[in-house]
Amino acid sequence: MNLHVDMEHHRHVLIVRLSGELDHHTADHVRMQLDEAIQRRQTEHLVLSLKHLDFMDSSGLGVILGRYKFIKQKGGKMAVCDVKPQVYRLLEMSGLFKIMPIYENEGTALSGMEVVS
């Protein structure tokens, strides 16, 4: 039930780093934090770094998909990066990578999304 959320704005891109476990205990808290950060700042794009995310269940998947729809409605792009094998498997089985790109790290995500010069 331990999750840490670190956020950094880089121009119009919100970089979110999740550490710990994103599950039914933490999903609502993360959803509220992300929505507030996206609305408060001029966030057009979102990069979700999962380098230190050890576990995620379907509630976490719902958080990611919901933020994807939110960003997409704003005309923005969203990507995930630094995904551990156990989380990668859940994202792959869900079909997430058919709608959202995955990158090796934050730098390649920003370059690949072509959102930061």
Automatic annotation (TrEMBL):
Pfam short name (any one): STAS
Keyword tags: Phosphoprotein, Sporulation
Domain of life: Bacteria
Keyword Phosphoprotein: yes
Cross-referenced InterPro entries: Anti-sigma_ant, Anti-sigma_F_ant, STAS_dom, STAS_dom_sf
PROSITE patterns according to UniProt: STAS
Domain STAS, residue spans: 3-113
GO molecular function: anti-sigma factor antagonist activity; antisigma factor binding
Record GO biological process: sporulation resulting in formation of a cellular spore
Protein family (similarity comment): Belongs to the anti-sigma-factor antagonist family.
Functional note: In the phosphorylated form it could act as an anti-anti-sigma factor that counteracts SpoIIAB and thus releases sigma f from inhibition.
Protein name as annotated: Anti-sigma F factor antagonist
Originating species: Paenibacillus solani
